[in-house]
Amino acid sequence: MKTIKAFAPATVANVCCGFDVLGFAVDFPGDEVVLKLNNSKEVTISKIVGDGGRLPLEATKNTAGVAVQSFLQSLGVDQGVEIELYKNLPLGSGMGSSAASGVAALVAINELMGNIKSREELVPFAMEAERIACGSAHADNVAPSLMGGFVLIRDYNPLDVVKVKVNLDLYCTLVHPHIEVKTSDSRRVLRSSISLRDAITQSGNIAGLMVGLAQADPLLISRSLKDVIAEPIRAAFIPGFEQVKLRAIEAGALGCGISGSGPTLFALSSTHEASLEVGEAMQLEFLKSHLKSDIYVSKINPEGAKILAR
Amino acid sequence: MKTIKAFAPATVANVCCGFDVLGFAVDFPGDEVVLKLNNSKEVTISKIVGDGGRLPLEATKNTAGVAVQSFLQSLGVDQGVEIELYKNLPLGSGMGSSAASGVAALVAINELMGNIKSREELVPFAMEAERIACGSAHADNVAPSLMGGFVLIRDYNPLDVVKVKVNLDLYCTLVHPHIEVKTSDSRRVLRSSISLRDAITQSGNIAGLMVGLAQADPLLISRSLKDVIAEPIRAAFIPGFEQVKLRAIEAGALGCGISGSGPTLFALSSTHEASLEVGEAMQLEFLKSHLKSDIYVSKINPEGAKILAR
Q1: A204 with B207: CB under 8 angstroms?
Q2: CATH no. of A3-164+301-309
Q3: Over residues B101-117, mean pLDDT
Q4: Is domain A171-299 given the CATH code 3.30.470.10 in the classification?
Q5: Which of A147, A196, A205, A224 should one mutate to test binding to chain B, selecting the residue with the greatest count of B CBs within 10 A?
């Protein structure tokens, strides 16, 4: 029977000024799946490693299972598939953990079926998995995990997913403090209306970030990495947020903010060395709030999910 | 005595999704000034042609006069200057008429004083003139008129003006129906708060427009040229707006919207031929609302204001 192993990376959604419209992928960490075709007509999850027993083994409740089912359904195929899921991403961390599992499984099943869909065409199946797992079919984690780099979700109706060409090297520091924030809680606190003034500020910053990435202007990127919509409210979930962010900037980061709905913070830097120093400074500052944290440093991942072994 | 003649082009502010943060310059129409240094210590306006007698000759109340005064003041120079202003832009048209007069005068006095400031450095003086003439120191007309091309006003505090590199040819059709809309009226009707949903939509579109301009993607530009903030409210000032816009798109425009606060509409097209056809279609549609209009078609102006003669 055919077997395949795939990897899908963690992602940072929102990216300060890109609330609900932007995300990017990092090189690692990420989730891995092993997929085996079999003679049953069912999609099953045979084991999950690394989740501390917290994720459901039922295929219909797990993003990896739902993604594969939804993909096979679209082909009208009753293919039996056994999924092993190796979670390296912490749950509820704001690093796109549920997205990465779904994306890894999708890329694997697509490869097994002869690569009939492009990465962009896989986005809707991964979104469907997000809807089942998280209650909302957001694309700002799954699209960058699938496609790599920075991905703009210009619109959902119809879906318009745009890969943003980035013309400079950027390094990402992820610092995951050991607390958990539920996406649903984190969305609930947001206001349903905002001031026109804040909307204009956010517009200027997201436009500035896009121009900075295109024109390889790190200072413009730095000036644009600001969030006047979600961060002022969500920061309350993360002890010491303002100070940790300040330390990141002092240590050389171009910008720093909440990854997705948190509690992980991300920082972008121009060099690998800076991104390491930034991580250390942030981790030390979190300790002042008695929070231990994990640091992940890597380049922006230009390609997204990948096949590890056939 | 030294004499100089300068031209500053009309500009389109807002550009659908770039409410209050984006503008671009066209090749024509535009305003011209003739500046003469003299031995007085005053800035005077000796004549204004083309305004139908509606603009003040007092230098302290006219954008051309204020811009020159404010520039000379910054240098600490008591230089006498005589300004002749040739208005080619209709007043209250939404094409940046007041901005063009101020910018032409600024570029001229800067040249006469030995080009001591860059175009970007001139922006604050032109903004000061806008403040006197229009009551608000907006930069989304003066910055593109000075610098050319598409200009992003990322922030006002501190001022952050970014020239956006555009990697494809674009043509602009301006259609000016013969009604007048006051900027102050047009701003007054806007709501001071908007839904988070609309703010996200506008973010996605301004980001899409920036990426489309950078990546030379006319279809992405087209999909992004939408305004959910100002247009739904301001369209009421312009008889037949929805139909005129529809005709522009049908005739081949990438997008169409209100230029500044109107009543002029702008449309962007990929070819000169299309931009001509678009203008004709829009003009015909305005006639159904018994509105005559003028059409101006030109390339996006990459350089902005220029010196015509020394």
Answers
A1: no
A2: 3.30.230.10
A3: 97
A4: no
A5: A196
Give the start-to-end residue ranges of the domains of chain A.
Answer: 3-164+301-309, 171-299
Task: Check B203 against A198: CB less than 8 A apart.
Answer: no
Contact (CB, 8 A) for A31 and A48? no
Please name the residues between 6 and 25 in chain B that touch chain A, using a CB distance below 8 Å: 17-22
Please answer yes or no on whether A196 and B194 come within 8 Å at the CB atom.
yes
Give CA–CA dist A50/A221, Å, rounded.
Answer: 36
Which one of A18, A164, A223 has the shortest CB-CB distance to B160?
A223
Bridge-based pairing state of the strands B265-269 and B171-177: antiparallel
| Predicted complex ipTM | 0.96
Q: Does A190 touch chain B (CB under 8 A)?
A: yes
Q: Shortest CB distance from A206 goes to which of B153, B203, B223?
A: B203
Question: Which tokens hold the place of B161?
Answer: 């003006």
The pLDDT tens digits along chain A (310 residues) read: 689 999 999 999 999 999 999 999 999 999 999 999 999 999 999 999 999 999 999 999 999 999 999 999 999 999 999 999 999 999 989 999 999 999 999 999 999 999 999 999 999 999 999 998 778 889 999 999 999 999 999 999 999 999 999 999 999 999 999 997 777 777 788 889 999 999 999 999 999 999 999 999 999 999 999 999 999 999 999 999 999 999 999 999 999 999 999 999 999 999 999 999 999 999 999 999 999 999 999 999 999 999 998 8
Asked whether the beta carbons of residue B194 and residue A192 sit closer than 8 angstroms, the reply is no
> Contact, B104 vs B141, CB < 8 A?
no
Compute the distance between CA of residue A46 and CA of residue A3 in angstroms, rounded to an integer: 14
Q: Which residues contact B108 (CB under 8 A, 6 or more apart)?
A: B4, B5, B6, B33, B34, B35, B307
- Nearest-Cα distance to chain A for B57, in Å, is 35
Contacts of A164 in chain B (CB under 8 A): 211
Q: A157, A127 in Cβ contact below 8 A?
A: no
Between A and B, how many residue pairs show a Cβ–Cβ distance under 8 A? Answer: 131
